Amino acid sequence: MKKMLLALLFGTLGVSSAMAGDAASLEILGFSNDGKVFAFEEYGVQDGSGFPYANRFYIDTATDKFLPGSPVRVRLDDESATTDKARAQAAEQGAKIADDAMLDRGFTAAANAITELSADPHQFVFLPRPVFPPIDDQAAIRLEEIDFPAAQNCLGAEKLKGFQLLKLDPNKLGASKVLVNDKSLPESRGCPIGYRLGAVQTYYPKDGAAVFAVLIAVERVGFEGPDHRWIAVTGKL
After folding, report:
1. In which domain, by residue range, is 48 found?
2. CB 198 within 8 A of CB 205
3. Residue 61 CB partners (closer than 8 Å, separation 6+)
4. How far does the signal peptide extend, from start to end residue (predicted)?
5. Cα separation of 91 and 12, whole Å?
């Protein structure tokens, strides 16, 4: 009887792991020395196909727009290939946009893994840099999800999600600045069904204003289960 229960248990675990969606790993590449460029990478193994991929994103922090040539997307259509190989190819292509050696990670002012269950996935309150006693005011970011009708190609999704991202002033009740307010869903997000704040990266260049990047995990309909991919919103602190 015990052997049968164990077989059922491990059989169930095997099915659930085999049918899992893929969650892209996040790598912060950093800011250019003048703070005008922010770059990050996501990589992993695609669910369903088993193909490794690596995507790099280079963003103009003043306009929150991609630089020419970005995003860099690499997928190796070979199950025996490795993510390291995909990442190396993406890095080679990305070097034409910005050299990794010239990027500075800055400071991770707030962070939550997508597996974190105890923290608020939609709000960060943080100090912009590790100076104590603090010389900076607190900052806050809040993400609010917006409902959109389900698209015909998004099987299994009753509704899709966009978002509004707000930069709050903790010292002034109700004061906020809208960073993003989705009026429609870009095709690049696939079929998004949820969002959560992943990290806030800040950078203080020697000359010029301090800048930030908010990393957001996008949960979307995948082939074998929900997938997670990353987007970023940038601006001045």
Report:
1. 19-236
2. no
3. 31, 35, 36, 37, 38, 211, 213, 234, 235, 236
4. 1-20
5. 39
What pLDDT does 40 receive? 98
Total tally of structural domains belonging to the chain: 1
For residue 39, tell me if it sits in a domain: yes
* Nearest residue to 62 (alpha-carbon basis) of 38, 39, 40, 41: 38
Which helix (H) or strand (E) segment is 13 a member of? helix 2-18
Amino acid at 151: A
The answer, yes or no, to whether residue 2 has pLDDT greater than 70, is no
Given a cut of 70, whether residue 87 has pLDDT beyond it is yes
Average pLDDT over residues 129-157: 94
Q: Residue 15's pLDDT band (boundaries 50, 70, 90)?
A: very low
Query: Tokens 């659930």 — which residue?
Result: 16
13 found inside a domain: no
Question: pTM of the prediction?
Answer: 0.90
Backbone angles phi, psi at 57, to 5 degrees: -130, 130
For the record, the structure tokens of 68 come out as 């020419």
